[in-house]
Amino acid sequence: MEREGSGAPMIALDGVGKRFRSGVEALAGIDLAVAPGSFVSLLGPSGCGKSTLLRIIAGLVPASSGRVVAESDLAKRLGFVFQEPTLMPWATVWQNVYLPLRLAGKWREDVAERIAETLAALGLEGFEQAYPRQLSGGMRMRVSIARALVTEPRLLLLDEPFAALDEFTRFRLNEDLLRLWQRHHWTVVFVTHSIFEAVFLSSRVVVMTPRPGRIVADLPVELPYPRESALRTAPAYAEQCRRISALLSEAMT
User: Fold this and answer.
1) 6: pLDDT confidence band, cut at 50, 70 and 90?
2) Which residue, 55, 64, 73, 69, is CA-closest to 189?
3) Among 29, 55, 134, 213, who pairs with 49 as Cys (CB 3.0-4.6 Å)?
4) Of residues 176, 245, 238, 165, the one with CA closest to residue 205
5) DSSP per position, 127-161
6) Burial, 46: exposed, middle or buried (Cβ in 10 Å; 0-12, 13-18, 19+)?
7) Residue 40: strand pairing partners
8) What is residue 1's predicted lDDT score, i.e. its pLDDT?
């Protein structure tokens, strides 16, 4: 069952293209609408422009052509999680998560409870005074996600956040992310090159071609939520993965 919001899209891209000064054409003719409450994965081969598209949605990179239409003030309610945790090595877990709130002018005392709740939701309770060097890769990524979530975003953008993690840690974080998404009703755009991850997480999977990236398929994932670890061995899950794998193979050729 697809879990989409209703009404106008939260963000819409109309004919978006991106050509860099080097002459490299990263994206061409991207049409994409993201509904409130949806979990949309951008799936495609390395170098197809997925990360560039995510940065255009975030307003970090301007489009060369086309237009991006977003809800008013969405930029103020946006969280971004990069592929690397990008934590301050000299700061504790608590200080790293507090950073965006401090930059927004929030006093520590006013947001201490919110930070504590966010850390607990990501399994970081008891690690508040630890430094990044003392944490595993999975724990560092949890801190990075907590830093994005503590701002209470409406739109959460994630750029292959679990790509460098071992399979067991990746599965656990997939499940934790879904649990939090269902609780908080964010809109999520998730970049991945894993078909299995895209199908497990998403309400929609958007398949892209090699560079210049174009959208060749935009498919609902017809699996009910909540999704637990047992889903990964279910025939319906395997069929959805097979279907999207075939489309990705077509796009590659």
Assistant:
1) low
2) 55
3) 213
4) 245
5) -TT--GGGS-HHHHHHHHHHHHHTT--SEEEEEST
6) exposed
7) 189, 204
8) 36
Q: What residues does each domain of the chain span?
A: 1-71+154-253, 87-153
Q: Is residue 59 classed as helix, strand or coil in its secondary structure? A: coil
The CATH architecture assigned to 1-71+154-253 reads 3-Layer(aba) Sandwich (3.40)
What is the β-pairing status of strands 155-159 and 187-192? parallel
Distance in angstroms (rounded) separating the CA atoms of residues 251 and 75? 32
3-state secondary structure of 178: helix
Burial class, 47, CB count within 10 angstroms (exposed 0-12 / middle 13-18 / buried 19+):
middle
**Conformation bin of residue 242: beta by default, left when phi > 0, alpha when psi is -120 to 50:** alpha
pLDDT at 5 over 80: no
- How far is 60 from 35, CA to CA, in rounded Å? 21
- Cis peptide, bond prior to residue 226, ω within 30 of zero: yes
Residue 127 to residues 6, 7, 236, 240, Cα–Cα distance (Å): 39, 41, 39, 38
Alpha helix segments (H runs only) across the chain: 50-58, 93-103, 108-121, 137-149, 167-184, 195-201, 235-252
pLDDT tens, residue by residue, 12-45: 999 999 999 999 999 999 999 999 999 999 999 8
Instruction: Enter the tokens of residue 102.
Output: 């401090």
The Cβ of residue 33 has, within 10 Å, a number of other Cβ atoms equal to: 15
C-alpha span between 187 and 100 (Å, rounded): 20
